């Protein structure tokens, strides 16, 4: 339930980094459904990795809002809401008022073959995957472009569609040759949506579709024409606003035409004439998350020079520590040497730089300039919450000859390697034993697609603080102050209807509506290492807004490994929504065994699998797949499948969601490790819900993760 507004962040990102956005004069445009396409039909085209488009289209009967992200250069994902202009959300005014019907959908498209000189680009796509099935369809499509010297580019497209994209039934379904089961498509729609209807895919009538997009010589102008594979005779338009004159979609032509114009590098406007009788319009906002960056006003790397410090006792440690903090983000907690003072170890915490390679390079230059010339090895041991994360080792003589240009063909980066923080050194060093801090941040909790109101939200100011009793023992807490919210419109109350599952998340209205000032969490956390690669945490207190209790986590994470394993176990009790310090009767033992995998075949991607018991006592598995772009922006999706039946779970079928994590240093001229989250959770139910623990050892040890080329 902790989200940020997608449009606001992406718009702000565009303003903050517009001057740094890599210019792409010809990104492919999107269809009315979102996703790269013509008007009503998709094409095989893909934009570059990280390209994101927020689109709106109005075709009279349907108003669609979509977000399309190019996750990989071969995979495109679209999340969409369709507003039925002439239909109520339900036939019960007390349940949904006069809100019009909203249908959520999710699309995927995969490139099967990249365009070559003679052959077209080919893609396979799935429309309205896991939605209600009102617009569900599958397709194969091919695209081939021809560029002329004076007339621009002509991009031709032809495809074969099934389901919603096959209703014109003008082609033979080739899968009927495999088995007769593919000749008929099962009817009906999934009430409430949420299930992937595998039994319907590629079945029933098929239709050929296609069209042309002309990128005209007039910069920014594209003209489109397409043959629509849908005859609109099977549209489902429930709960008509005017029951005596229910809406019918009339089709006078199978051909749609339109024009799209790029106002600038970020905004497109489009106009169309569809079905031979309907004017349509829309717009899109586009950006590339992968190439986004912000020019930094940070101190440049120092020029290499000879040190004037003759021995270690003459070193101004306080000034050196301040320089490292200002220029590299490393907060020095202690400095230790060996008996001969030929090896110097700095125990530090990285507080600003996401890019450790840049921070270490700048730190190595400072150390080579300031440390005595007879020091043979610099060690930067990175700590976090008292844990030894990773140690960067610098071969000082090799580094100095490379940095000063005294040896040809030597690269200073070759002098830097990574290793483990030595436990004995970590224990015996004189570390800072107390620390404290606080901060204030705005927070927006939100949910989309509700029956009472499409958008449910709460805006609050959060104040958090911490106190370190020792490097391993921390007390932390967070307080929230409500600014405004509309959770009073959320009707899914505890006593409103029977539910076989305990209410663990659908009670959000009680917490948001009853508390103006609340204790979000307050907990005591102890972290330590059982071995070089094994970390553990013990914690207890008010763990999140809805639950408190005690728990433990163990993580096995070898340095620079693609795989890690974890286990957490928690005994928690539900907090009283009307009293910050009281508990209710419901308690549960929840926990999960976890595997984290960075697969070689999907660079910069992370797959998380968590199996165990969820907050409502249901048992199952959660899958989470995310991908990080070069800019540091990451996008992911998750789904939890448990032993709760669809009838018991309710609308939505199973817990799922999508998110984008944006590093804040894309907004600022100084480095920061803070992030903001843009998330979409189609609907909140009680099954498949996890405890929101503030301590997460995998995130804490993030610097140990696999990075290609690390030595």
Automatic annotation (TrEMBL):
Record-linked InterPro entries: YbjH
UniProt keyword terms in alphabetical order: Signal
Pfam families, alphabetized: YjbH
Region forming the signal peptide: 1-20
Protein name (record): YjbH domain-containing protein
Source organism: Pseudidiomarina terrestris
UniProt lineage: Bacteria, Pseudomonadati, Pseudomonadota, Gammaproteobacteria, Alteromonadales
């Amino acid at each position: 339930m902790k989200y940020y507004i997608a449009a606001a962040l992406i718009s702000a990102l565009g303003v903050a980094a517009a001057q740094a956005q890599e210019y792409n004069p010809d990104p492919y445009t999107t269809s009315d459904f979102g996703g790269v396409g013509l008007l009503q039909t998709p094409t095989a085209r893909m934009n570059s990795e990280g390209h994101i488009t927020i689109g709106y289209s109005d075709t009279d009967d349907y108003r669609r809002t979509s977000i399309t992200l190019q996750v990989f250069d071969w995979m495109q994902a679209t999340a969409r809401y369709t507003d039925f202009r002439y239909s109520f959300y339900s036939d019960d005014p007390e349940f949904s008022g006069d809100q019009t019907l909203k249908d959520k959908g999710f699309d995927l498209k995969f490139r099967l073959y990249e365009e070559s000189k003679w052959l077209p680009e080919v893609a396979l796509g799935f429309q309205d995957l896991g939605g209600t099935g009102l617009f569900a369809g599958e397709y194969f499509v091919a695209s081939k472009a021809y560029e002329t010297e004076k007339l621009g580019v002509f991009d031709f497209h032809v495809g074969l569609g099934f389901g919603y994209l096959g209703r014109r039934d003008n082609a033979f379904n080739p899968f009927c040759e495999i088995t007769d089961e593919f000749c008929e498509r099962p009817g009906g729609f999934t009430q409430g949506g949420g299930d992937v209807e595998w039994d319907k895919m590629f079945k029933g009538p098929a239709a050929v579709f296609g069209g042309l997009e002309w990128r005209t010589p007039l910069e920014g102008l594209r003209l489109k024409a397409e043959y629509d594979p849908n005859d609109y005779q099977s549209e489902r338009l429930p709960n008509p606003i005017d029951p005596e004159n229910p809406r019918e979609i009339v089709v006078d032509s199978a051909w749609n035409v339109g024009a799209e114009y790029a106002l600038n590098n970020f905004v497109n406007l489009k106009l169309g004439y569809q079905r031979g009788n309907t004017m349509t319009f829309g717009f899109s906002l586009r950006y590339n998350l992968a190439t986004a960056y912000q020019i930094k006003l940070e101190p440049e790397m120092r020029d290499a020079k000879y040190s004037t410090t003759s021995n270690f006792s003459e070193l101004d440690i306080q000034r050196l520590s301040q320089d490292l903090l200002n220029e590299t983000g490393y907060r020095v907690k202690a400095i230790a040497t060996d008996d001969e003072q030929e090896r110097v170890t700095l125990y530090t915490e990285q507080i600003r730089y996401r890019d450790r390679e840049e921070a270490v390079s700048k730190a190595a230059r400072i150390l080579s300039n300031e440390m005595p010339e007879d020091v043979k090895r610099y060690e930067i041991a990175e700590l976090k919450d008292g844990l030894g994360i990773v140690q960067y080792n610098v071969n000082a003589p090799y580094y100095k000859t490379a940095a000063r240009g005294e040896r040809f063909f030597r690269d200073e980066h070759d002098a830097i390697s990574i290793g483990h923080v030595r436990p004995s050194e970590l224990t015996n060093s004189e570390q800072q034993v107390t620390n404290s801090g606080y901060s204030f941040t705005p927070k927006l909790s939100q949910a989309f697609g509700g029956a009472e109101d499409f958008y449910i939200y709460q805006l609050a100011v959060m104040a958090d603080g911490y106190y370190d009793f020792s490097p391993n023992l921390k007390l932390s807490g967070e307080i929230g102050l409500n600014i405004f919210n509309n959770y009073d419109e959320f009707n899914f109350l505890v006593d409103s209807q029977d539910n076989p599952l305990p209410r663990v998340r659908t009670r959000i209205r009680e917490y948001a509506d009853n508390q103006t000032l609340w204790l979000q969490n307050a907990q005591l956390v102890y972290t330590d290492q059982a071995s070089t690669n094994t970390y553990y945490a013990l914690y207890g207190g008010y763990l999140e807004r809805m639950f408190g209790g005690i728990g433990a986590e163990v993580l096995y994470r070898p340095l620079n490994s693609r795989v890690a394993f974890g286990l957490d176990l928690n005994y928690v009790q539900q907090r009283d929504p009307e009293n910050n310090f009281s508990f209710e009767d419901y308690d549960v033992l929840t926990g999960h065994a976890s595997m984290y995998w960075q697969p070689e075949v999907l660079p910069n991607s992370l797959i998380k699998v968590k199996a165990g018991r969820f907050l409502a006592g249901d048992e199952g598995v959660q899958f989470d797949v995310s991908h990080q772009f070069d800019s540091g922006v990451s996008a992911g999706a998750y789904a939890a499948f448990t032993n709760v039946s669809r009838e018991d779970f309710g609308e939505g079928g199973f817990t799922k969601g999508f998110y984008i994590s944006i590093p804040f240093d894309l907004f600022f001229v100084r480095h920061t490790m803070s992030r903001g989250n843009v998330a979409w959770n189609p609907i909140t139910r009680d099954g498949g819900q996890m405890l929101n623990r503030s301590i997460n050892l995998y995130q804490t040890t993030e610097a140990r993760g696999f990075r290609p080329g690390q030595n």
